[in-house]
Amino acid sequence: MNIKQFLPHSVGHYVNFALLFIITFILKLYNLPFMLGVSISLASVGLFLILRLYGVQKAIISAVIIHLLFVLLFQTPVFDIVFILEIICVSALATFMKRGNLVFWDLIFWIFVGGPLSILIYHLMYVQHIENVFYFQAMINVTNGLLNALLADILLAYIPFHKWMTNRRDQRSGEMYIHQILFHFSIAMIIVPFLLIVGITNLHSHQLEKGQARQVAVNTINSFELELLNWRQDDLRRLQLLGTVQRGYIEDIIQKYAGDEWYNVVVLDNDNEVIIASGLSNGDIRSSKEYEEMYEEKEISPYFYRYIPYESENELMRWGEGYYFYWRDLNVGNLSAVVVFPLSYFQQRMFDAYIDQFQTFILFVVLAMGIVYLLNRLLILGFNNLAATTTGLPRKLQQKSVIHWPDTRVYELHSLVRNFKHMSTKLVSMFNEKEEMNERLMEQAAQLRESEKSLHQFAYFDMLTSLPNRLNFQQYLQELIETYGEDRFAVIFIDLNQFKQINDTLGHVAGDELLKKVAYRLEKTISDNVKVFRLGGDEFTAVVHPVLDEDLSKLARNLEDLFIDPIDVMDMTLYVSASMGVSMYPDNGKNVDTLVKFADMAMYSSKDQGGTTMRFFDESMQSQFEEKMLIENGLRDALRHDQLELYYQPKVAADTGCITSLEVLMRWKHPVLGVVPPNKFIRVAEEVGIIYDIDRWGLFKACQRAKEMERELNEPISVSVNISAKHFHQEHILVILKQALAESKLDPSRLKIEITESVFNKDLKGVISVMDQIQQLGVSVSIDDFGIGYSSLNQLLHLPINEVKLDRQFITNIHHDSKKASVVKMIVDLAKTLQLNVVAEGIETKEESQVLNELGCHELQGYYFCRPLPEQEIIDFLKDKHL
Questions:
Q1: Separation of alpha carbons 297 and 287, rounded Å
Q2: What is the DSSP letter of 690?
């Protein structure tokens, strides 16, 4: 059988019910104590919540189970069932009365059932030890019950229990009503201040009376002691022997100082035997040991104690049978005196005060409910009538029904009515306009149908080249996959190389003309099994279906041949190349996204090769692409997580072998890839724009550490720092240099900036201007990897540089290659003529070092002298070399 037949609700429904039951049990177990046996119980709050959230049956069953548990576990009297009757009666009233709330229904219960029944039960089951105690207990029950009902009603009104108890989205469960807010506010303004005032007043009064009682006891015993000090020793001995005359004297003294009936005085001998007691018989006086066994003792202050019986019929009567004792030894005749104050006296005073205050409280509650009723009649009924009138108002206006607006003298409500009238007039006008608009829409619908064909053209075809667009391409691929199943087909991505430079140099008009002519050439390849698309920008695609290897090879040759001949654009002849990447279905993927992604990867792999080439996707491309993505994403965290580290490689003087300076190199320890070579991550950093932050960090760190090395070694340290060429197309490199030098206090002459020849391939004049300003700061400039890039020997005549570094390809095996030696000799001679420093890098053998020294290089660098070292190791190296 299905478990839902046994548990039709959600698990949360039953879990929350169990929590409410447990909370109710705990609230029943632990009352809130006030004073003199009076306490407040909040158990009915939980039962009221169960009643309203889970229904009458669960509420009554919960009340009965809790009562039985208390009877079995805590010996609660079986007849103490008023709170069960409260839940039953409130449940019945809630079922049969359409109007009202928990407080109203609970008030009816206590007036007609709960209050009279409480008094009757107390009269039948208990002995009245204090006047009006049963009426007082009934009033406490009434107040407690109404407070619980108010708390439960407030919780239900303002806390969204239904969202927690069920999975249903009840739109009305979170609503609040004005009449609820008015009622809760009004009643709370009566009950809460009443309870606070009564509580604080009675507590304060009792504290005063307790202090007064202690003072009376102190004065009485002190006076009694003074009287005894005047007695002779014979009289004191006779008193201890229970002499009749002396006992008479003592009785007279006690009556003199303790004639008031609200307390009694007891005189004890040194064995704690009673000599005489005022107002108490010998049977009423117990020894101290008996008091400890029968009463709970609490010391309130020195000599002043409170004794409450351990057991009694209920808590209020238990306190009524207790006493305050002031017990002190006298300084004469080995006597003790005890002043006894019955707690029932203090209870009686509290009962009388509360009964008077309760009458006033009932009057104010009735008055508050009357005010709430009047406000409800004045405001809420007007709002309800307005709500009924405006429900379905548009439909009524469309049907031209007569609207009966409510009449009220409340200004705010009258304003709402006036606004709704104005809105209804506007709605009538809008309905009339709607009919006219419908007629116009019919005419426009015909026009829309006529323009649907052109919209389809806009949606599925490129407006510039008239080729099918990206959306058409994606839908076409999806149709191939769904229709032809396992048929093989090829997706070819075609991307024009250097298109952005053409667009930026010749303008967008020339770029658009180039795209049209490329599209025209691509259209020549279209056949029954080849379809060409333009995705956007300079990206085109071709889909070959069905595909055979020989057909694909032929198409690849045709596509490459398309870009052999130049293209004339705006009276200019352009040689354009394209990078092409191919992915195969189903070999490389079985969905559109995968095929597109892999073809794109293959295209970028082709772009790395340069020229017009076509690459087919393989798994190595994916790993390369993923590695690139890891590097790109990791670079963003590298600076924040201190993953970059500076290494240092020394340069030595060619003639002496002494260390002249240090080149600062950067290393990156990636948490996944391990150590990433600079030639990998620097290129990616330049592509994504992070190179500016990396170079800034490296420059600041290099200057700072160079200055610290100077202090540690007590020798000047010169450093060379590699900077990306991108900085020289933005003048903020000057700001970075100034800040780094200022913060580190490094001498500018100790800093050298190394840049590659690629810096000169764009805006040469601007670059030279930036380099001039760097020179003015006192910082040297070096051309790194000289001879492999864009610069020429002729450019050395015009560039504001201080040094050239020969690339390693000129150095390797130079002692076996006379041509290399001749080229190096020519560069060295020209550099010396221009007073430029020449550094040979990448030296790995002694023979290479000797040849370069003979050719006249000023400085040498390479693994032959020292590999790049981290900071501490380079410091140790420099100390060993006695820099």
A1: 14
A2: T
% of the chain residues with pLDDT over 70: 81
CA distances from 829 to 657, 817, 857, 858 (A): 21, 19, 9, 11
Q: Cα separation of 380 and 177, whole Å?
A: 9
Q: Amino acid identity, residue 259?
A: G
- Say what the pLDDT of residue 411 is: 66
Contact between 821 and 853 (Cβ < 8 Å): no
pLDDT of residue 174: 54
* Other beta carbons within 10 Å of 648: 26
Rounded to an integer, the average pLDDT of 841-858 is 89
**Mapped to the 3 state alphabet, what secondary structure does 200-241 carry?**
HHHHHHHHHHHHHHHHHHHHHHHHHHHHHHCCCHHHHHHHHC
Burial 477-504 (b: 16+ CB within 10 A, else e): beebbeeeeeebbbbbbbbbbebeebbe
Angle at 267 between CA 266 and CA 271, to 5 degrees: 120
Under DSSP, the state recorded for 5 is G
The 10s digit of each residue's pLDDT in 190-199 is 767 776 777 7
Give DSSP secondary structure letters for 528-585.
TTEEEEEEETTEEEEEESS--HHHHHHHHHHHHHHTTS-EEETTEEE---EEEEEEEE
- Find residue 541's DSSP bridge partners: 493, 533
The pTM of the full predicted model, rounded to 2 decimals, is 0.42
Nearest residue to 872 (alpha-carbon basis) of 717, 712, 640: 712
The predicted-structure confidence for 138-152, as pLDDT tens digits, reads as follows 777 887 888 888 888
What pLDDT is recorded for position 748?
A: 92
Cβ-based neighbours of 472, under 8 Å, separated by 6 or more: 460, 461, 533
Do the beta carbons of residue 290 and residue 360 sit within 8 Å? no
User: Both tokens of residue 698?
Assistant: 């490296």
Dihedral (C-alpha) 106, 109, 112, 114: value to the nearest 10 degrees? Answer: -110
Lookup: tokens for 557 = 């040759």
Say whether the peptide bond before residue 468 is cis (omega within 30 degrees of 0).
no
Question: What angle separates helix 508-523 from helix 499-506, to the nearest 10 degrees?
Answer: 140
pLDDT value at residue 729: 66
Length of the chain counted residue by residue: 883
Q: Alpha carbon of 195 to those of 40, 110, 147: distances in Å?
A: 11, 18, 10
Q: How far is C-alpha 588 from the chain's CA centre?
A: 42
Strands 304-309 and 530-536: unpaired
pLDDT digits 0-9 by tens, 537-563: 889 999 998 888 777 888 888 888 888
33 upstream amide cis, omega within 30 of 0:
no
pLDDT, tens only, 394-425: 777 777 777 777 777 666 667 777 777 777 77
Q: Coil, helix or strand for 805?
A: strand
Tell me the pLDDT tens digit for each residue of 288-320. Answer: 566 667 777 888 888 888 888 877 666 667 777
| Nearest residue to 120 via CA among 137, 105, 104, 144 | 137
Cβ–Cβ < 8 Å for 352, 368: no
Q: Show the tokens assigned to 427.
A: 């709605």
Task: Give the pLDDT confidence score for residue 128 in this predicted structure.
Answer: 57
Among 24, 32, 42, 27, CA closest to 148: 42
Q: Which residue has the higher pLDDT, 439 or 314?
A: 439
Q: How far apart are CA 862 and CA 554, in angstroms?
A: 50
Angle in degrees, CA 460, 462, 463, rounded to 5 = 120
Burial of 676 (0-12, 13-18, 19+ CB in 10 A): buried
Structure tokens at 472: 């058409």
- What confidence score (pLDDT) does residue 171 get? 43
Element (H, E) at 614: strand 613-616
Give the pLDDT band of residue 167 (cuts 50, 70, 90).
very low
Cα 673 to Cα 397, 605, 687, distances in angstroms: 73, 21, 19
